[in-house]
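Lecture notes, unit on protein representations.

Consider one protein chain, 593 amino acids long.
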Amino acid sequence: MFNSLQSKTVGDIVASDLVAEKTFNASDKEAGNTATSQDHHHESDDESVDKEAQNGVRAIEATTSVWTKRDLIIAYILIWVIYFVDAMQQTTTGSLTPYVTSSFALHSLTAATSIMSSLIGGIFKLPLAKILDIWGRPQGFAFMLFLLEVGLIMMAGCKNVETYAAAQVFYWVGYNGMSFSLSIFVADTSALKNRAFAFAFVSSPYIATVWIGGPMATAFLKGPGFRWGFGIFAIITPIVTLPLLALFVVNYLKAKKQGLIPVRESKRTVVESIWYYTIEFDILGLLLLSAGLALFLLPFSLYSYQGKGWKAPMIICMIIFGGLLLIAFVIYERFFAPKTFMPYELLKDRTVLGAYILSAVLFVEFYVWDSYFYSFLQVVNNLNITQATYIVNIYSIGSCFFSLLVGIFIRWTGRFKALALYFGVPLTILGVGLMIAFRRPDVNIGYIIMCQIFIAFSGGTLVICEQIAAMAATTHQYVAVVLAVEGMFASIGGAIGSTVAGAIWTGVFPKRLAEYLPQEAQANLTTIYGDLVTQMSYPVGSPTRIAINRAYGDAQKYMIIAATAVLAIAVVAVAFWRDIRVKDFKQVRGVVM
């Protein structure tokens, strides 16, 4: 399928949408794949629970069928509050982490644990999607809340690196899992035409919390200490999350009482139940995929800690075995799996595949140009920590704000492809491309801020549009899985982007330093290369500082050229999407936004 699409030009694909729009009707579901066309009643006004869906999907459809508009409004207020607390917690604990790990600074396990815990937290979305679909949304959310609490409590009381390492794994799995569960709640309770705005609304707390984390962390450090920085959120988090959990449970029980959720009497033995859930969860497929991703992605972050770098036997083995496991996963899912993690037809759908490719590309280019941006601002532009932080946060603030406008636009027009293709992608290319000229010494900081604003507005557009594209091409049954796989592509893109940035930095910066540094500073080349404080210690305008700034400019130029080149793939990826009109697409049931 993908090979056949490659033979078409971008112009052919865009033009074909005009014809496709006229020929697609309600029974086509504007999805065009066998995985979704089997549920024709999704396009009708039928509000009954989909009896073909998995248990978790049926349960949430029954829940939204019995709750009231008041319950819906309360749910969204609670979700917004949870996102606010989660975002505040993330920015605060992120600021506290260096103080927690300072006593472990010389322990090799610390860096590896940080990388591994973040990776596990991202990959765990894959099995969590199956938990949400099979056991239920509240059950998965409660489990993630429990893991987050365990992680926070352990970090508050950790006294050695082993405890901290375990706490990081629990924390990141719980944090990412809670965020993902809330995203699925929003998808469950919003019509597709309103979902872009709903996603933007619940993400809006980040506009405020980027300013709160630093002052809160400082207050804890000057007051009760960093341990209470974790402890206070271990207390607050259940207080703000349990009301939402209770709201869903109460309405679930109401739906069950009304007979909307059939009582299932299992006559399976323990062994038969274990085998049943092994099949339902596609355990072998999940193990192959999760282990393959972990082994394949981890070396991209750990190679710099090995004496031989990419040539280290451990790094080579992990990449090879990770790749083999991923190939084995594809073969198993295509030919042998009794129940697949994700319908194979969806992966052949050009809209879904295009959304996944765009997700990966956005993370590749972002991590390429952003990896050393903070250091550049401090060294080359001579900004203090607060000023540099404000500029770095332009993306978070701008993208969250502009995504609200994008949500309103999609609600009004029912379209998202044109917005991404003719506005989002070109503005991203413009913003990143202009930095080739502006991210260098002796350029006014205002031009860099302008580029950040362009990238922020386009980022808020593309992230929302690619998620809506992926969800619009499937049914409610597969929304959780589709979003989980989208997150997997983002993780892969981020790993590739960080590696490219690191390779350019280590390949260009030290060589340019050796070339530009004055003779009296050559003896300090290694120290200057590896230490930000040393770089900033040389007076602005001194020959050594000018040489450092020139070396930064050369390295940044190649990074931004690479990021701009990668964005060419984004044009093709978005052009492959079908121009789905989300206004005409009924995907969820009951009282929804």
